[in-house]
């Protein structure tokens, strides 16, 4: 491996707690983090240093599990174990809690904005996925509750361009949803992982979906378009590649870089790995190789990997030890 | 007189209409001093008492009652009679007056001169005119106190009231809610029952009115000033309920009902009450309820998760069984004991045989409880249970199950105080002797350590009961134990074997002398057969380890003179062999031989015979060997005797110490003379093999191997009883002083100083002693004052030991010596030693100047020393320049650390600032001893601490990363102790502490990690639900 | 726990505690590093004689809920694996016992350790479900933010009688 993953910064973001998740602002100047200390923090670069611009610690009563920026970059959503999701509005460098979305019976595990910015999805241990519609007056309305999983829903992610939603669950499955007659329905169920699916990420074009799991593998799923395969129907997804043997413990997160196409993973063995696609492989049977690996990227579990939206190769990770690390990935290939 | 009566009228007026309460005391004082009589007071009160205003009448009665409460002892019978009549009448008056009336009656009831008949009439009026439960708390208490007083003094009269008295009481108490009053009411009820008042038709009423409180559920309010506890109420009520067999028909069903309760306290109380009443009842009262009682007890013991319920259940069962056993002796009727035990056996026995042994423990405990009730019960139970268990043992193959069964057996073979066979009865184990032995021996032969340990324990118990083990059994047991000593390398098994051998040898010395000791001896002296450098050899399996176990076993079995006579010579022979080099024993081995000898000396019965043995054989032998080794000196080529090693001599000292301390006066006197003349004049005539060169002068020898033998002189002469006269005292002291001041060999000069100290500590006070001491002190001072002297350290050493010797006996010169030591704390060379010497001054020395050496040690000398000197240290600390403060802190922490805990606690507040300072002192010794003295104080912290927590944590937490393991451990213990402080005090520090304790969890030393785990676990619980 | 739950398994097979670990000379030597070993983990789980099983105020070892052979630690690789055996196959408290064991280890071991807590294979009807739950750190974290659950766990870990 000539490719390198070099540490740039390390910040103690949520001391004495764990940092669960980080999310880049769409323009890339800010990074939001959240953790077991019930707080959301906003980080920005001043000179060479990353500093905490703002701490939102009065929104949630329990762990904040995930954060998500709206595509326009004016809003931030935070999902918490206190069963609520907060929507924060950013004006200059200040945040104001706009509304609190309630309805889930228990821990909200994830929140995600659709590319249009008009739809929001949340999921929870109550096994349901909720779709919320946002109108011009910043009013949020739940338009659909889908109960396709039989267990805890761990993650939701929207297609990069279409109104297509994917969810991952403790029941080892991934579901794909689409709107049908004003209601959201599960259109495909992706089975193959042998344990909890923790996270999902679409490729830049939205043709493929990467999933990572407690079974220590990452799987790449591809949507079958008609004509491509005899026995598949439109809208079905099938696993085209499984990355196994690379990870020592649970893979908690996967992120597909929309600038370079590199695939990064966060693992419970404290390692951060970057995979590259083998350009020579048959597109129907893609192959990935391990391009860079930092075994002790953090001294505890790595929970999240996030590629910078504008600057190719810039990667943020966070860990159970409360740290955020920022890396630079360079590839010769 | 007239003036007095006017004054009285004024006082009464002031009290009644002027509302001046304090006047009551003035009146009472007047009555007490004889200024006016009580009847004059009544007269003076006349108008108030007949006033139409109830308030005025009340005020009048109040004054009279208050005076009576002060003066009731001085009343005449006539006065009492008048007053009683008056008060009884007042009971019919307005209700607002009643409280004052009751206070007056309470006082009158205590009068010894209460006329005959008054008690009954007071009670009749009370019961008739007062509705007790509508009174206030204090007045109800008056009523109960009146009853109690009258019951104490007029028992016969009250009994004359017949059941009316009981009925009156029942009515009075019915509905009482106050715990203080209940204690009084229970006391009355108990008196009624225990003193034989006639209950007749009111038995059930009396039971009802008291049993309605059962089981007591009372939580004292926070900051309760009365300090009544739930336990007091429980005990008081229990005394009532279990006081008479007449209650049996009501109480037993109640207990059975309450045992069904979900409240654990109710269960425990019910079971304890059952146990209490079973000791009062006979089998007649119990018989109808036995099946239900048994099934309740069984259910509780089988199902409970609580140790207190279990143990209460077992005690109840034992009490029931005891009760039935007593009945067996007195009645000829149906043997209810058999019937009951059959029931117990039927329900429990089969659990002993179930394949998974799930209920084996509760069943066994129940059976053991029943069996322990009496000899008779144990006969019945063991006859059924033991064969079952022994058969089960043989049919099982798993070691864990066998061990469980053997542990159960262990519980059955130990008689309790009440089931021990009486004279002429033979042990209940008689029929099972053979099978028990065979099970135990087979278990001892297993390779499973825990099974072996259990077997050793069972064997111990069997051996402790006379008549259980026959001669061949004991011989077999001794052979097994000998084999285990030789072969078994598991440390815990060895320990169990040693305990078992020690215990058996007490009752059965002969086979140990004839079978075990020769085997051990043979093993010790046998030639090595296996190669010592064999890689396969585990630690413990080596020959050295085997020999080590033999050496220890020799001590363990030396419990009788006949055994000591066999074992001690083996050990002495080892020393001799080590000395001559005929066998190579390491220094450690020689030391452990000495330790065994010391154990033997320690556990030997203090008889004339044993005194002679040590005086004539052991001590001379030890002296001879040491002397020979010393004279032979260092041998540069080849073998040099281990007996010149300091470690070995230091191990011989306690042997001689212990033996000499136990010598009878006559032997002690010859011992003193022999030792003194040996050391002064080289008189070796009392030693065996005394072919020494003449003219040896050990105390003046230039050879360190000879001069260091002074430690043995100390052992011989400093541990003898006070009464023993030491010959040539002055000459001896002179030579010791010289040796301690001039020798350059540390062990020699220190031992000489200790010997000097040991002698002067016991010497009779007087001018002779003072003369010697002053002379020595002058010499010490001169040397110390001469900064360039080469012998300052020696002089300092002698000064410290001399100070200690005198300090312990409160000798006046000790103050001078102490100040001398203090002055050295600013000495540039000796400061650090001066600080450290306080540890020596304040702690017990193992080999001299302690109570077991018969030293003159006054109680509380440490407190006295602290009181006299702590101020000087604190002052010295405050005045010292920064770099030299630590010397004072070290001295202080040594002193405080050795104080009794109670004194530490009282002194801590004033010392806290200095101790906190000491924690930041870089000296690890200071840190450690400060932590050690803080830790116990933190468990029960003085209020002063709360303001110092910030400072304390900021100093403590960094110490958890100290380079010294002991400091890390001690600081973690302090942090742990602090977790027990009230939550509001420590919660602010929780996050900081948890963060700081994360790294000690990964300390390289296990002992540190262990403390960190404990401390951190506790800190996590602070402020967390369910934690605290 | 409610009265009903308590009776489920009133009398587990109780084994006597293994004695105290004997202190070795090297443990007292400042300069020697003592690796974290199986016995140490075992002692952590049993220290100091309290129970993880709210049904029985006895130690785990006495209940045979955790046996020494079922603790495996690798200090160098920073991994600990504990298999615990619920007292009977249907014991409804298995998850809670497992959670308490896990929390005790999380609080007692250096953060570098990866801690796996499992039910001994073949000893519980819902073995897989309980194991999966215990391995899910998100669920464990959420459980410990539930004050009722935390209360029970803390009571299990408390050295003081409740």
Automatic annotation (TrEMBL), chain A:
Keywords, comma-separated and alphabetical: Repeat, WD repeat
Highest taxon in the source lineage: Eukaryota
Keyword Transit peptide attributed: no
SUPFAM superfamilies reported in the protein's UniProt record: WD40 repeat-like (SSF50978)
Example GO biological process: iron-sulfur cluster assembly
First and last residues of every WD repeat: 22-43, 57-92, 101-142, 146-178, 190-222, 295-333
One cellular component term from this protein's GO annotations in UniProt: cytosolic [4Fe-4S] assembly targeting complex
SMART domains reported for this sequence: WD40 (SM00320)
HAMAP family attached to this UniProt entry: ciao1
Subunit-level organization: Component of the CIA complex. Interacts with CIAO2A and forms a complex with CIAO2B and MMS19; the interactions with CIAO2A and CIAO2B are mutually exclusive. Interacts with CHD1L, ERCC2, IREB2 and POLD1. Component of the MMXD complex, which includes CIAO1, ERCC2, CIAO2B, MMS19 and SLC25A5. Interacts with WT1. Interacts with CIAO3. Interacts (via LYR motif) with HSC20.
Family: Belongs to the WD repeat CIA1 family.
Function: Key component of the cytosolic iron-sulfur protein assembly (CIA) complex, a multiprotein complex that mediates the incorporation of iron-sulfur cluster into extramitochondrial Fe/S proteins. As a CIA complex component, interacts specifically with CIAO2A or CIAO2B and MMS19 to assist different branches of iron-sulfur protein assembly, depending of its interactors. The complex CIAO1:CIAO2B:MMS19 binds to and facilitates the assembly of most cytosolic-nuclear Fe/S proteins. CIAO1:CIAO2A specifically matures ACO1 and stabilizes IREB2.
PANTHER family found in the cross-reference section: CYTOSOLIC IRON-SULFUR PROTEIN ASSEMBLY PROTEIN CIAO1-RELATED, WD40 PROTEIN CIAO1
Name the record gives this protein: Probable cytosolic iron-sulfur protein assembly protein CIAO1
Organism: Electrophorus electricus (Electric eel)
From TrEMBL, chain B:
Membrane-spanning ranges: none
Entry GO terms, CC: cytosolic [4Fe-4S] assembly targeting complex; MMXD complex; nucleus
One Pfam family this sequence matches: MMS19_N
Domain MMS19 C-terminal per the UniProt entry, residue ranges: 552-978
Keywords tagged on the record: Cytoplasm, Cytoskeleton, DNA damage, DNA repair, Nucleus, Repeat
InterPro entries, per database record: ARM-like (IPR011989), ARM-type_fold (IPR016024), MMS19 (IPR039920), MMS19_C (IPR024687), MMS19_N (IPR029240)
UniProt-listed SUPFAM superfamilies: ARM repeat
Record localization: Cytoplasm, Cytoskeleton, Spindle; Nucleus
Domain MMS19 N-terminal: 42-303
UniProt-listed GO biological process terms: DNA repair; iron-sulfur cluster assembly; protein maturation
PANTHER family the record matches: DNA REPAIR/TRANSCRIPTION PROTEIN MET18/MMS19, MMS19 NUCLEOTIDE EXCISION REPAIR PROTEIN HOMOLOG
Oligomer status and interactors: Component of the CIA complex.
Family: Belongs to the MET18/MMS19 family.
Purpose: Key component of the cytosolic iron-sulfur protein assembly (CIA) complex, a multiprotein complex that mediates the incorporation of iron-sulfur cluster into apoproteins specifically involved in DNA metabolism and genomic integrity. In the CIA complex, MMS19 acts as an adapter between early-acting CIA components and a subset of cellular target iron-sulfur proteins.
Annotated protein name in UniProt: MMS19 nucleotide excision repair protein
Organism: Electrophorus electricus (Electric eel)
Automatic annotation (TrEMBL), chain C:
Organism per entry: Electrophorus electricus (Electric eel)
Keywords from the UniProt entry: Chromosome partition
Function: Component of the cytosolic iron-sulfur protein assembly (CIA) complex, a multiprotein complex that mediates the incorporation of iron-sulfur cluster into extramitochondrial Fe/S proteins. As a CIA complex component and in collaboration with CIAO1 and MMS19, binds to and facilitates the assembly of most cytosolic-nuclear Fe/S proteins. As part of the mitotic spindle-associated MMXD complex it plays a role in chromosome segregation, probably by facilitating iron-sulfur cluster assembly into ERCC2/XPD.
Domain MIP18 family-like span(s) in chain numbering: 52-117
Source species, domain of life: Eukaryota
Record's protein name: Cytosolic iron-sulfur assembly component 2B
InterPro entries, A to Z: FSCA_dom_sf (IPR034904), MIP18 (IPR039796), MIP18-like (IPR002744)
Single GO BP term: protein maturation
Entry annotated with the keyword Repeat: no
One GO location term (cellular component): cytosolic [4Fe-4S] assembly targeting complex
Family the entry assigns: Belongs to the MIP18 family.
Record's keyword annotation contains Lipid metabolism: no
Subunit structure: Component of the CIA complex. Component of the MMXD complex, which includes CIAO1, ERCC2, CIAO2B, MMS19 and SLC25A5. Interacts with CIAO1, ERCC2 and MMS19; the interactions are direct. Interacts with KIF4A; the interaction facilitates the transfer of Fe-S clusters to KIF4A to ensure proper localization of KIF4A to the mitotic machinery. Interacts with CCDC117; the interaction is direct.
